[in-house]
Design a protein that fits this description.
Helix content is 35%, strand content 36%. The protein has 91 residues and is an alpha+beta fold. The longest helix has 18 residues, at 14-31.
């Protein structure tokens, strides 16, 4: 099941994002469930959130993944939405 994780950073949290980026990327590699991912950007191309496409068994597995993401544990996010997603174009 593909799940889109859309997370918005707290205002002024760019340094928190940068400080935890290596741990976040290692978590992605370790868990092996990320299909696609990348930061959301503002008009000045500064990172303000994340879009992660998870390939997991169900929404509960996606929630577990989201809860254990080093970014989430660092308190980076203002909000996180998990939305079932259907690929139509690409990959």
């Amino acid at each position: 099941m593909l799940i889109a994780l859309i997370a918005r950073d707290k205002a002024g949290a760019l340094e928190t994002r940068k400080a935890n980026r290596d741990a976040h990327l290692a978590y992605i590699d370790e868990t092996g469930v990320v299909n696609q991912a990348g930061p959301l950007l503002d008009g000045a191309e500064q990172m303000i959130g994340s879009l992660v496409i998870l390939d997991v068994a169900d929404i509960a597995a996606a929630q577990d993944w989201a809860n254990n993401d080093p970014y989430a544990k660092a308190g980076l996010f203002q909000s996180v939405d998990l939305i079932p997603w259907k690929r139509v174009i690409g990959g």
